[in-house]
Amino acid sequence: MYDRKFVVNKSTLQGTVKVSGAKNSVLRLLAASILFDETVELSNYPSSLLDVQIHEDMLRYLGKTVVVDDETVTITQNEKLNTNLEWSERSIRNTLLILGASVAKYGFGRVPLPGGCKLGERKYDIHVNVLESLGAKVYEDGDFLIAESDERLQGADIQLRMRSTGATENAILAGCLSKGRTRIYNPHIRPEIIDLIDFLNKAGADITAYGQERIEINGVDTLSSVRHSVMPDNMEALTWVILGTMTKSEIKIENFPFKDLEVPLIHLRESGVNLYRCGDNAIVAKGECYPIEISTGPYPGINSDMQPLFAAFAAMCKGKSHIIDLRFPGRYAYGEQMKKMNIESSVKGDLFEISGTQRLQGAEVQALDLRAGICLLMLGLVAEGQTTICDSWQIKRGYNNILGKLSSLGANVSEI
User: Fold this and answer.
1) Model pTM greater than 0.85?
2) How many alpha carbons lie under 13 Å from residue 155 in its C-beta half-sphere?
3) Active site residue 117
4) I need a surface site. Which of 112, 226, 331, 403 has the fewest CB within 10 A?
5) Each residue of 266-276: pLDDT tens digit?
């Protein structure tokens, strides 16, 4: 799997594509299943995502029964879970949420130190502070992180020092089975957080979000069986919008999360994108690529994951574009891979400057992480000549059935 490559050739796209369930939501829902003794059923389930498959295997290791049937997964268990996750294969950052759910449910959790994309300083001390605030003892043991509590976790007021998505999610998971009331101040409220809250509340949790100010949780003893449809992936939806414009194609995008993408779509429409709404579907018509000026920020703004997509868009523009990533300064290493495709760029402090060109050239490039990888794939579909993307597994971590969907739209893409 890890030595495979994508081979990409210039293509014009046409047809209909459906947005799958969101990677950044479903991984949290899978971790939350640890809190349940009862059945959890998820529909609109992105079963081909590599990170999802790793999480399924982790749950099976802990004692869950995980049955996948196309776009639905059913998760059950017959006895108390093993909460010591001995895991030697590729890890994902979601192990921190497995830890929080395990200590909340069983009073103990041991997981590998978090993995996933390497995006500079992504420390986990804020997760430790969350669990310690609720009464857990947290410490490292070699390459593992352990959380334990002799008694049920105790509700508390938690002041997050920064708006961290993962820490907010961990506080929700640990807090919903804690005794008493938990208040999370300075949470990161974004669609995936709301999806997690809706999922847990369907199962009997008592969680209320008060905008960006706080989340209040009244702890419950148990959670009941639940069925839930995973929210559509806003990153995938945005990818199809930008890719349709870059390739001067017309694409119908089903299951489109308009309400989650209001700010990014404003920037894109102002930059030449033609996007029309038809119920829950979007239609991208042949548009143009005009230079962009964006800065990343918390939801509802343009998040850090989106900036490589905007960089691909900028490479097609006539003129210079500028990107500032305030969440992960310096997340521009993929610029060196873009240069191999005849795209000029420079980094000045936290500013990423891209000079657009109409002479993109195919090359052999490397997917340094998930979003950098999809950026290069998008560029390969508009470049002259062939583009070979090494470490293409990075893309399959977060794009459900990406090759199948591209092929159905007429893209000349294959895997070797």
Assistant:
1) yes
2) 19
3) yes
4) 403
5) 999 999 999 99
